Amino acid sequence: MKKPEFLDFSQERIRVLHFTWIAFFITFYVWFNMAPMATTMLNSLDWLTPEHIKILAICNVALTIPARIIVGALIDKYGPRVVFSGLLIIMAAPAIFFAFGNSFIQMVIARLLLGSIGAGFVIGIKMVSNWFPPKMIGRAEGLYAGWGNFGSAWAAMTLPWFALTVFKDWFNLGEDSWRYALALNGLVSLVYGFMYYFLVKDSPDNEKNNAPKGKAEPMTVTSYGDLIQYLIWSFPLVGAMGALAWRIGKIEIDGEVLIPEQGLYIIYSILGLLYIGHVIKTLQVNLPYLKKGVPEHEKYSWGSVAALNSTYFANFGAELAIVSMLPMFFETTFSTLVGANNQPIMTATLAGLIASSFAFVNLFARPLGGFLSDTMKNRKLTMIIYMVGIAVGFFLMGFIGKQGPIESNGISQLIPTFNGLWWLVVAVIITVLCSMFVQGAEGATFAIIPMINKKMTGQIAGMAGAYGNVGAVVYLIIYSLVETNTFFFIASAGAAFSTLYCLFFLKEPEGSFADEH
Fold first, then answer.
1. Residue 390: closest CA among 299, 464, 322, 459
2. Where are the transmembrane segments (predicted)?
3. What is the CATH number of the domain that holds 180?
């Protein structure tokens, strides 16, 4: 009996695929280690507030935006093996620094730096595209991303247990037990970073890439209209950083804002100069190229890049935001739910397990998205169907809870829309079904990206990946400003907009079902 393709470890490409999704898994295991520990941290640290947790969640995804752009260029220059190994090793430091942080400022700095580990995703996209032919790319990228994304679910499922059972009960480490659980994350990243370097090579012929060597450059476009699009779509990558600075600047510590007004103006000025520098460099690279005339075989649709930026904003961006808030959402919304012995049913561990259901389906939903993109013979239609499903799913999640009565502090907490354990079961079902569309859409997105322009896969994946983090920053800022129900409805509207954008601007890639590389 023939082995399933992706379990045939006698093939080097299959071994590389599995070693690479494990590397990606570890990045998510480390990246989202705070969400399941949030309530435990609040109980342990008397100076930490729920507002601080929301700001740390935003910081957690902020620097991933520039990191994915930078890493995308570095992959095309140095190859994915070196870049992935280096990222895992370097990011162990802020992971451990955050675990033992004793002030909000320390935690903000550590969380900002640690957000760079989210750039690991685009590295594996390039590695997998080096090893698999177009007709298999959707399934291979889907398996890589889906099993890798499961790292956030694994963190939600296991970290509360490590903190509260292993380190607190077994090793008697007291209220600081959560710190050792998070530090364990960093050590895992450090060890596997060294292992990955020796386990894989960049491509079957061991060439790092097909891109020209030299300095990392902006993307090249193939028409003046595409050049304008590129410059317009580049602006939100710095704009999201400005929005983050504005949101953090509003936080007060001991009556003083975290970033004074003059500091904000300095940050805005630096970001503005960075964007101007990017525009100048992009024009220097592209104008001579366009003036020469672009050969027909080098042309590609930048509208497709923009459309996939929008899909990743709406699916992966929303996912990052939701996995950052979902454990606390379930724990607080269903806090009044009690069992037969009149004891609360919803604990931090149970909330983590339930919230992990959103990321758990990554194991099969994202590979399924890639598989359907490969087999439906119409990658654009597959993408649009998934985005419609996301819009409906987030809309339904907006009805899981409702505003309760206003308490003595003037704040209204969420309560379940309906009473009883049955509604918790329904809420979990809605969450899982919505997640299947979210992760399937991510698989469908990256089943198309390697087809747009093989030579610039790293940069295109880097930009789309960065837009995922732009989405996460935008959605988390919105989450910190509005009611949770409204947050889900806005996420639904974002997916609906992306659906329309794909309908008009996404083009079916040529040769995307070929048998050879």
1. 322
2. 12-32, 52-75, 82-100, 112-132, 144-166, 178-199, 227-246, 266-290, 311-330, 350-369, 381-400, 420-439, 460-481, 487-506
3. 1.20.1250.20
